[in-house]
Design goal:
The chain has about 375 residues and is α/β, with parallel strands linked by helices. Helix content is about 30%, strand content about 30%. It is built from 9 helices and 20 strands. The strands form 5 sheets. It has a 6-stranded mixed sheet. It has a 4-stranded mixed sheet with strand order 6-7-5-15. The longest helix is centred in the first third of the chain and has 20 residues. It is globular, with a radius of gyration of 21 Å. About 50% of the residues are buried. InterPro entries: FAD-dep_OxRdtase, FAD/NAD-bd_sf. Its cofactor is FAD.
Length: about 375
């Protein structure tokens, strides 16, 4: 019987737990420690559509592509409801034919290695309006049929519900690392075969207890939920409008706009009027008739980044029983699930696995 601890019940922690259960079946006991405050996953609703990103970090793209391929498979395998994950398509708009053509060509090229994209096609501004009738201003764009939207908190909870209660134990509160294999929780020290640190922006603080310094910084993110009760269709695509915040329509007139990137606020979890107004003003440019009364709620979370914006994961150098995954940034809902699967595979393996195709050498992120 293998005893595994996971610190953090976010996108990485929950997916790792799910795959550990799938790989080990009944020969494993998983304990998840989560303090339930400020987590990026719980505040996040996001778009799964990395295929036309122009980020230069190719390892990140390989990781995101694998993540975008995995999520719909995971949804089918676990009978995920569409309010958790919905492969509804992604519309991306541009203001010139040249920009749109470049985007389309990049998508066509990448589709050869990414069947999860399904298809890519041009849309006129009237096509966009037909698909998203609540918009008052539209630009031409492309639609990637394999794109989708995901609710981070519901995704994590859904995966954990797939694991029998006798296999997984969730402990709410702060866990402190004592060593590579020991955790102190509520004045009790427990030993594990392996510990996985998936604590998001709190990973740096978590590892400092055993004198491991990780290259992770925090960033505040806010999004708003709007309510508009007209012109809604079922399963509308998500929209990535040029120069504005993403637009995610859900059922019953709910639209999410976001999210902000606030480097100076880090662990501050208070919603701000400034961010709310910034997000609302962005939405007003494409949706007529909006004002503050349409804002139902503001969600706040803390993301984690590394200094080069690349995620990293695996066995922590010099600590054979201690693994981590983090620094996912704003693409965490795409990359988190595949990282969770990779970490579960690493625990299953007797050898150290090579993830260099998906991340820069992990040593560079530790001192």
């Amino acid at each position: 019987m293998k005893k595994i601890a996971i610190i953090g019940q976010g996108i990485i922690g929950s997916t790792t737990a799910y795959y550990l259960y799938k790989m080990f079946s009944s020969n494993i006991k998983i304990t998840i420690f989560d303090k339930r405050r400020g987590q990026a996953t719980k505040a996040a609703a996001g778009i799964i559509s990395p295929w036309v990103s122009k980020r230069r970090n190719q390892q990140w793209y390989h990781l995101a592509r694998r993540g975008a391929d995995l999520i719909p498979k995971l949804a089918r395998e676990t009978h995920m409801p569409t309010d958790v994950y919905n492969q509804c398509g992604t519309i991306i708009t541009r203001d010139t034919k040249k920009k749109l053509s470049e985007l389309y060509q990049l998508g066509q090229k990448r589709m050869q290695e990414a069947p999860a994209m399904k298809s890519i096609q041009y849309l006129s501004s009237s096509d966009v309006k037909n698909m998203l009738p609540f918009l008052s201003k539209t630009l031409p764009g492309i639609i990637i049929k394999g794109g989708g939207k995901i609710d981070g908190a519901k995704f994590s909870n859904h995966l954990l519900k797939q694991i029998p209660e006798q296999i997984v134990n969730l402990k709410c509160g702060e866990a402190t690392l004592v060593s590579d294999q020991q955790i102190k929780f509520q004045n009790h020290i427990e030993k594990f075969d392996n510990i996985i640190v998936a604590a998001g922006a709190w990973t740096k603080k978590t590892l400092q207890h055993i004198n491991v310094l990780a290259d992770i910084r925090a960033q505040k993110g806010q999004l708003i939920e709007l309510s508009i009760h007209n012109q809604f269709k079922k399963d509308m695509p998500v929209l990535m409008p040029e120069g504005e915040y993403d637009v995610l329509p859900f059922s019953n007139g709910k639209i999410i706009i976001g999210a902000t990137h606030e480097d100076d606020k880090t662990f501050d979890l208070k919603p701000t009027n400034n961010a709310k107004q910034k997000l609302l003003n962005s939405a007003k440019k494409i949706i007529n008739g909006l004002d503050g009364s349409n804002v139902m709620k503001t969600k706040v979370g803390t993301r984690a980044y590394s200094s080069d914006y690349g995620p990293f994961f695996g066995i922590i150098p010099g600590h054979d029983h201690l693994l981590m995954g983090g620094a996912l940034g704003s693409s965490g809902l795409t990359t988190g699930p595949i990282i969770g699967k990779f970490l579960a595979k690493q625990i299953l393996s007797d050898q150290k696995l090579d993830f260099n195709y998906y991340e820069k050498p992990i040593n560079k992120y530790f001192k």
